[in-house]
Amino acid sequence: MTGYGSARVEVRGRALLVEVRSVNHKFCDVRTRLPRELLPHDAAIQEEVRALVGRGRVDLSVERDARAGHERVELDLELARAYAGALSRLESEVAGDDAWKVPLIAGMPGVFEVPSAVDLDAADVDAVLAAVRSAVTDLRAMRRREGRALAAALGEQLDAIDTTVSEIAAELPREGALRAERLRQRVAEVASDVRVDELRLAQEVALLAERADVREELDRLSSHLGQFRGVLEGGDAVGRRLEFLLQEMNREVNTVGSKSGSAKISHAVVDLKVGIERLREQVQNLE
Q1: What is the value of pTM for the model shown?
Q2: Staple partner for 56: which of 7, 22, 90, 170, CB 3.0–4.6 Å?
Q3: How far apart are CA 131 and CA 141, in angstroms?
Q4: Burial, 224: exposed, middle or buried (Cβ in 10 Å; 0-12, 13-18, 19+)?
């Protein structure tokens, strides 16, 4: 499911912005983009995310918040003097009389590096982790709103499947009678000059009807539909449980299709498969 959340935190006088985004994914895949001082705590940050998000690709970033109203520009004279001294050495030892080379050389990657002076303590890390939890909580709220809308769409599809199951159940007596009549006609064609044992024929008709009976499959399918609704109403992480129920529903529908000899039921089975596939596509968006 898609979602977005953000939070702000101040650490050592620096305003940091935590942003987290999620898109659909079969598993929980967390990816982070962190400033250098937070890299040693990447595992802890990912653990905070996974504790609140069970499914989806989650991208989390932490960076300086340029929009913070209390951000200010400070002049570091010591650092400026250090740069000036380094440039003087560069001119005297490398550039020589060709002073124009100084800005070119100074701009080369790695010529000037300032070691990170930020050394975060436990309180600083806890503040960042709290901001991560706050941002993910915002994301979960957005995903929850999307989930409610998706649950309504799933409910409509379940109603359509329920209706089709009822239509198949109503068709079963007619199909049984048609099967029996076709068997009688076939026997009459093959053994037109032979006296038919009506009792034996009735037994064969009953056996054929029992083998073709799909009432149990329809009952189990209706049960799975009820469980599906119950899981949706229960909340929490439902994606994997619904995927399992869809597998069971598809198995029952396949059995109904293999047993049926009626064109009307065969068409209804196709509708059921289409409906289940639509449910599967939507369920993949659920956590």
Answers
A1: 0.57
A2: 22
A3: 15
A4: buried
Three-class DSSP category at 149: helix
Length of the chain: 287
- Plot region of 30 (φ>0 → left; ψ -120 to 50 → alpha; else → beta): beta
CATH topology of domain 3-70+122-143: Ribosomal Protein S5; domain 2 (3.30.230)
- 3-class state of residue 33 by DSSP: strand
pLDDT tens digits, one per residue of 39-88? 999 999 999 999 988 878 899 999 887 665 555 556 667 777 787 887 78
Helix spans in the chain (H): 42-52, 77-90, 101-106, 122-190, 198-212, 215-234, 239-259, 263-283
Contact 283, 251 (CB under 8 A): no
Q: Residue 100 burial (CB < 10 Å; 0-12/13-18/19+)?
A: exposed
Burial of 88 (0-12, 13-18, 19+ CB in 10 A): exposed
- Cβ atoms of 20 and 139 within 8 Å: the answer is yes
The one-letter amino acid code at 218 reads L
In the chain, pLDDT over 90 holds for what percent of residues?
29
Give pLDDT, residue 108: 60
Work out whether strand 28-33 and strand 14-23 pair parallel, antiparallel, or are unpaired: unpaired
- Say if CB 232 and CB 238 are below 8 A apart: yes
Would you give the distance in Å from CA 41 to the centre of its chain?
26
Maximum Cα–Cα distance for the chain, whole Å?
A: 124
